[in-house]
Amino acid sequence: MSSLSLTALALLAFVSMPLASHANEVETVPNAQRVVAVGGSITEIVYELGEQKRLVARDSTSLYPQEALTLPDIGYMRQLPTEGVMSVDPDAILLLDGSGPPEAIEVLKKASVPLVGIPDRFSREGIVEKVKAVGHALGVDAKAEALAAKLDAEIASAEKTAAEAKEKKRVLFILSAPGGKIMASGQGTAADGIIAMAGAENVMSAFKGYKQVTDEAIITAAPDMILMMDRGDHGASDEQLFSHPALAETPAGKTKKVIRMEGTYLIGFGPRTAGAVRDLAAALAKP
């Protein structure tokens, strides 16, 4: 598989709807020293907690911090290859909700490797919950409480600033646009969550998840701004984007307003989210 394909899979993990956790009923593995982190935000949190020496591998969505890239990559979190996971001889696996497929999780259960499910909700409260869950799993509750409090305050401050914007922008998040077919973000997605946190409105709130939308729906939605991940493989150039007949009819199309941000930063929902909220709010506020 090409590096481009791996990047596409990695970033798609952050925009997919969370599924029910498949992990065993294990909440803590305080003595584990060979931990596999499955989920980019989990890896970031482990590093922020100063427990990175316990990591022996990561999944392909774990692209930050840079040091994490030196760890063995065991594959994409939603298509976990059991051989890859077991090849690093783990004594614990931290799984972000939505990891799978179910049959791979069942194999890992039979291998008697402790699996700890980590919740994934797209809000400030969800990030706090996630940090505490990772810290509890690793037996470092005090450090997790301190980190959670710090992030809670930072994100709350960023949200407060965003809410003071003079105008609440209407945003269309486009996941992909192959052949002019627009795949947009509805309710319950990471994109929907970050748009709300940045003080804006997701114009595609009539459905849940990600869905291909019609030209009529785009024109009716009338977004002020287009938001996309800063990627070539699932994106489109400005020229391609605004030559789309429906987008060209919207306020965003007429003023050629598009914001592009790195995917794991924008919708990773981890330790860097306060910065993502601030940056997105600032970009939305530009005339």
Please provide a written account of the structure.
With 287 residues, the protein is of the alpha/beta class. Strands 5, 6, 7, 8, 9 and 10 form a six-stranded mixed sheet that branches. Strands 2-1-3-4 form a four-stranded parallel sheet, with helices on one face. The protein is built from twelve helices and ten strands.
Which secondary structure elements does this structure contain, and how are they paired or packed?
Blueprint: H1 3-15, E1 35-38, H2 40-48, E2 55-58, H3 82-86, E3 92-96, H4 102-110, E4 115-118, H5 124-137, H6 141-163, E5 170-176, E6 183-185, H7 190-197, E7 201-202, E8 210-212, H8 215-221, E9 225-229, H9 238-242, H10 251-255, E10 258-261, H11 263-267, H12 273-285
Parallel strand pairs: 1-2, 1-3, 3-4, 5-7, 5-9, 9-10
Antiparallel strand pairs: 5-6, 6-8
Helix pairs in contact: 5-6, 6-12
Number of helices: 12
Strand content is 5-15%
Shape: globular
Rg calc: 19 Å
The total count of strands amounts to 10
| Main beta-sheet annotation | 6 strands, mixed
N/C terminus separation = 42 Å
Mean pLDDT over the full residue set = 90
Q: Based on helices, strands and strand pairing, what is the structural class?
A: alpha/beta
**Model regions low in confidence, pLDDT < 50 over at least 5 residues:** 1-10, 13-24
Q: What is the helix/strand order?
A: HEHEHEHEHHEEHEEHEHHEHH
Helical proportion?
40-55%
